[in-house]
Design goal:
This protein has 82 residues and is an alpha+beta fold. The chain is 23% helix and 27% strand. The protein has one domain. Zinc ion binds next to loops.
Length: 82
């Protein structure tokens, strides 16, 4: 479950990039639908010699979800004191 954007409070969503086989890994990150703040990109597939492509999609989604939620709305001290 994604928290709302820490910057503008809008909805956030997962953005998947299917990549390009052999050139670019498939990735996922979380992005705000309004201000486009986003998390780091995580690979949803990894290449391992001798094993070929294997999916780490669940792990990647979990990671970006945590990254996004960890920086969810922080109270603005200045506003609280006013
Ligand atoms: Zn935002």
């Amino acid at each position: 479950m994604l928290e709302s954007c820490p910057f503008c409070g809008s909805n956030a969503e997962y953005e998947f990039d299917s990549g390009s086989y052999g050139y670019r890994h498939s990735t996922v990150h979380v992005k705000c639908t309004k201000c486009f703040a986003k998390t780091d990109t995580e690979q949803t597939e990894n290449w391992e010699r001798g094993r070929g492509m294997y999916s780490t999609k669940d792990e990647a989604v979990k990671t970006v979800t945590k990254k996004w939620n960890d920086r969810a709305p922080q109270r603005n001290d200045r506003e609280l004191k006013r």
